[in-house]
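Known limitations

Structure tokens in this collection are predictions and should be treated as such. Users comparing against experimental data should check residue numbering before alignment. To illustrate the layout, the record for Protein SCO1/2 is reproduced below. The input appears on top and the generated tokens appear beneath it.
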Amino acid sequence: MQRPIAIAAAGIVATIVGGALIATTILAPSDRLAACRTGNVAGGFDRLGGPFTLLDGAGREVTDADVITEPSLVYFGYTSCPDVCPVDNARNAAAVDILAEDHGIEAQPVFITVDPARDTPEVMGDYAANMHPEMVGLSGSEEQVAAAAKAYSTYYARADDDPDYYLMNHQTMTYLVLPEEGTVEFFKRDDGPEEVARRTACLVEAVD
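Generated tokens:
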């Protein structure tokens, strides 16, 4: 569940996301990616993302370097999510298909659980395979997941005390991460697959 706080100041509209100030304003001309972006992160996009160690669908320990080998749409959620996560993951999967078909860009959706107690590596692997053949599903220990979420300034918390059917509150940003570049953009829930693909293609081409 995203909890944005709008702040109007000098024509800049900002949203607080997990401690990172994301502002929809024009970037400095010196940023070679500025023309492709619609937003900015106070302190720079370097504040979002970073090293992580998690478990893939086969239970193997993997790092961010193992996973982010091509443009990646990174999303945090959980497989028991009744509505938001399936829609967002399907949007990311559709964007990957558009990138391949219309732009000739190979990309992958990456789904990291915020509910490792139920989302074992096997569960994440099965969910990802059913969602899209290129999707990577990642789980891990509570500590590993917390470290990955912290790197991306992603908030999550258990919503209730039901032992089996509890919900998770979590943010719903999708992060575009490029190999050797790191996080270069974020997408909101109302960005459709065509928009995600368009901005991703622009950024990939700008980096190349």
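For this record: The radius of gyration is 16 Å. The CA atoms of residues 157 and 169 lie 5 Å apart. Please report discrepancies through the issue tracker.
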